[in-house]
Amino acid sequence: MSSLPAQLAREFERRYSRSARLFRAPGRVNLIGEHTDYNGGFVFPAAIDRATYVAVAPREDRRLRAASLSLPETLDVPLGHRQPAGNWTDFITGVAALLQLEVGADLLIATDVPIGGGLSSSAALTVSTAFALGGGTLPRTEIARLCQRAENEFTGMQCGIMDPFASCLGEDGCALRIDCRDLSYKAVPLPGEVRLVIANTMVKHELAASAYNERRAACESAAARLGVPFLRDVDYSSLTGRELLCARHVMTENSRVIAFADALLAGDMTKAGTAMYASHESLKTDYEVSCQELDTMVEIASKLPGVHGARMTGGGFGGCTINLVAADHAPEIVEQLTAGYRAATGIPPHIFITRPSAGASEIPA
Ligand code: GLA
Q1: Any residues with CB less than 8 A from the CB of 49 and at least 6 apart, and which?
Q2: Most buried residue among 57, 100, 199, 212 by CB atoms closer than 10 A?
Q3: Which residues, other chains included, contact 212 with Cβ-Cβ below 8 Å and sequence gap of 6+?
């Protein structure tokens, strides 16, 4: 067992004088298909090799208690509690309420997913909690839907299904091409000659959650005006202003996901990379969810030998970029990108190679 879950298990025993079961759920990185999930479109995420771990043991007194090794707030509430506290414990409250928990529990949580860094630390937390609280017996797509609802209803973030879906259903070595209209998906293996490099800009602009919800509302009002359930397969020429830009991004991004997945299967990395750069440009100019630091990271990457493609990943306004790079160049790309971004912005970034990994699971004792 790698060291973080082992440390978590030991700490649980020390605090609660009994042993625990351990569960893990990974963060995710989206290769392409951004802001399309809540529009019934295509996305292409991979679960990553960083995860949130939950140690859990039942309690006899119908109370739910949770603590984290990395965050100070704690939860200590009766079952059935539904009142958000305005901090990370709201994810636990939400998942427990939606699972209609009947048995109390102690939870202790640790993570190596950067918190709030755009790699879906929230979905890693809700999904690992859902597995730990017994939801692991439900079909995985149902767990993903429940976790999305927990985040929507208990934290106010109107996120789509992509992140909990990837955290639940990720497959080792693969990215998932998901159709968010019906949740059908195909696991596409990442070719051996490429690597995924994640570059965290280390900035998160304050407006992220409100701007995300605004974009979603604009898409929904455009769809309503056009009389369709989702902004997909529509003629957007009658729209204007923000609605037109949003609809154009969603439509073109959907085609790029298909082109990217086909290029990956055909081993055409140049074509895959072209789709990634075009995705970034569309998110920057049409959807307006990029920021200077993300643009700088993509621009520096685009000039490095061995980089096939780069783009912002996740909701935007900071967080990370994803880079598709030649395997034999990956270590020096990490170094050069780190040095280049630091020189351009004065901010030391966090850049690392990741490997697509399997979705949530129990860790055997
Ligand atoms: C966030 C949300 C996802 C998705 C992305 C943008 O990560 O949680 O549902 O909408 O932004 O693609």
Answers
A1: 26, 354, 355, 356, 357
A2: 199
A3: 157, 158, 159, 289, 315, 316
* Atom 11, ligand 1: residue with shortest CA distance: 315
Distance in Å, CA 330 to ligand 1 centroid: 27
Q: Which helix H or strand E contains 201, and what residues bound it?
A: strand 194-204
Instruction: Please determine, looking at this structure, whether the domain spanning 194-354 carries the CATH number 3.30.70.890.
Output: yes
Containing 299, the helix (H) or strand (E) segment is helix 292-302
State the chain's mean pLDDT as an integer: 95
| 51 Cα to the center of ligand 1, angstroms | 18
Half-sphere exposure of 314 toward its Cβ, with a 13 Å CA cutoff?
Answer: 30
So where are the chain's domains? 3-189+358-363, 194-354
Domain 3-189+358-363 -> CATH class = alpha beta
Residue range 119-131: average pLDDT? Answer: 97
pLDDT band at 2 (very low <50, low <70, confident <90, very high): low
Q: How far apart are CA 334 and CA 349, in angstroms?
A: 10
pLDDT tens column, 19-75 = 999 999 999 999 999 999 999 999 999 999 999 999 999 999 999 999 999 999 999
Give the active site residue among 37, 90, 106, 163.
163
Confidence of residue 191 (pLDDT cuts 50, 70, 90): very high
